[in-house]
Amino acid sequence: MDSLPDVSVQHELSLKKRMDKRKAVNCDLVISCITSSDDELAHAALFRWMLERNKANLILQSKSPYVEQFLTHEISSGRGQRYLDLLWRFYEKAGHYDKAAMLLSRLADNENEEISLSQRFAYLSHAIICAQAGNDPKTKAMIQELRDKVEVAHIQLAIKECMDIRTPKQQELVKLLDGPILSLQVLLEKFAAPYGLHKVQLAIFHCANLYSEEPIMAVWENILQSEFKYEGEVSERLLCTLHELTGDPWWTQNEAGQRYIMEVGIAVVQAFLDSGAKFTPMERAKIAAICDSCVSMFSLDARAVSSQHLLQLDRHFSALHLRLTAMSS
Length: 329
Hints:
The chain has 329 residues and is mostly helical.
């Protein structure tokens, strides 16, 4: 025979549910009563109660006229990051996009080392969104500055990801990189140059609008020397690097640079053609296709200018193209 349900237990559970529901209703009534009053101290006490219970979103949803005053008071009293984050969210929710953008920009620039680089990315990205939605011309004017900071932060992140953290010194450097956004000069002199991060150096030059022949040529030569094997082999990485190199505005706007990279391209392709027998048919066809892509690109660049030297290189590229086509088929 099945046992009868324990009526007393069911009654107790039902009673508890009713009491919890009544408490929730009473709590909502108290909150509603306080938020509809003009007692600023009561509002502040309510906000603190909400924060203690991790109900910060209720503050933003409360429509209280004292939210901004409360948060700014707590911030001025040194309460910390939590209140700053709440304040910009309040500004955004209230449609005060200019204030939100300004505060987010300040947060991204904050020297507090506990704010990670990824968090600063988030602040900057949101600042741009708010600035675009704002009406103040001053806020609109800062959009490009914010984008520039994002670009610098990307470079800093790239350096951080390149660092080897096996030694205490490297760990300290990574910790430094995962904090305030550093200047391009610091990133270049303290990280990119000493650690041979050549492509990062190029990114820094580009970000700084520095198109000076000597440093750029030196960096590219370092890249090519580190990837070019002089044993009759062709590095696929080098071929990809050549593609990247021709996308750099400095090379497309500088005849000496164009000539240099085209001559390197010819040397790479010629090295491959001379050692083609070392590769399997599949490898040979694959590398030949990559080489041919480079050759076609260089040929188009050579025809786009009136330089006699580059036109001579174009004829050389045409001959290489025929050999590569035969090899890849």
